[in-house]
Write a structure and sequence with these properties.
Blueprint lengths: L1 E6 L7 H15 L3 E6 L22 H12 L2 E7 L7 H10 L6 E2 L11 E2 L5 E7 L4 H8 L2 H11 L6 E7 L7 H18 L3 E2 L8 E2 L5
Parallel strand pairs: 1-2, 1-3, 3-6, 6-7
Antiparallel strand pairs: 4-5, 8-9
Helix pairs in contact: 1-6
């Protein structure tokens, strides 16, 4: 299976990077092809230009490649910090430019864009990992956990990804090494659960995976 891993954190020494690397390693151990994009390291341009808005727009080579990869991905892993209840701007820009009409969704005939689109993404499962310095209860009670709504309802569900699972690791700033090791263990367990080990069979390119929990 092809799994797209999208990382958005500017510090290569961050816990976000440790999460992404752990996920990639676990995916490879399970026999999957993990395609990692570190958006800051790649200097991804988050600006959506007017010339790209239409579905039939001619896209820059880098954007076209991202679109092609996400369109055929069998699964998605997103890793980013919670900044003001939102993803970092570079990741929001990635969504704007890559999760686009004709790639991730389409409107049905007769719909001018006011209706509910039909999802096109091949992936049926997505994992989202967030880091935060806000306690879970405060995040939910005071802020309403906006990241859950953004990823699950506003993006994945509309684009055909039926199942999404999100974890938030908090509070990062006061976390201990033992806590962080346990959190990375959670990541490995999630990968084993949602993208399990592939048993290769002759004549089967990807093999037959153990039963997906969904």
């Amino acid at each position: 299976m092809r799994i797209s891993v999208i990382l958005a954190h500017p510090d290569p020494k961050s816990f976000n990077h440790a999460i992404a690397q752990t996920a990639v390693e676990a995916l490879k151990i399970n026999g999957h092809q993990a395609i990692l994009h570190d958006l800051y390291q790649e200097n991804f341009d988050p600006l959506l230009h007017a010339t790209e808005i239409s579905e039939d727009a001619k896209l820059p080579a880098t954007i076209k490649k991202h679109c092609e990869e996400i369109a055929i991905a069998n699964g998605i892993v997103i890793v980013h910090p919670n900044w003001w209840g939102q993803p970092p701007a570079i990741l929001k820009g990635w969504v704007d430019r890559i999760i686009r009409p004709g790639v991730a969704y389409e409107f049905l005939e007769g719909d001018s864009g006011e209706g509910v689109p039909r999802g096109l993404l091949k992936a049926k499962t997505a994992l989202v990992y967030n880091t935060s310095n806000t306690e879970a209860k405060r995040e939910k009670d005071v802020f309403g956990d906006p990241l859950e709504t953004i990823w699950k309802n506003c993006i994945f569900r509309l684009c055909g990804v039926k199942h999404s699972h999100r974890r938030t690791f908090n509070v990062i700033v006061t976390s201990t090494e033992k806590q962080r090791k346990n959190w990375l263990k959670n990541v490995r367990q999630d990968v084993d659960l949602f993208f399990p080990l592939i048993t290769i069979k002759q004549g089967d390119e990807y093999g037959k995976a153990k039963r997906n929990p969904w």
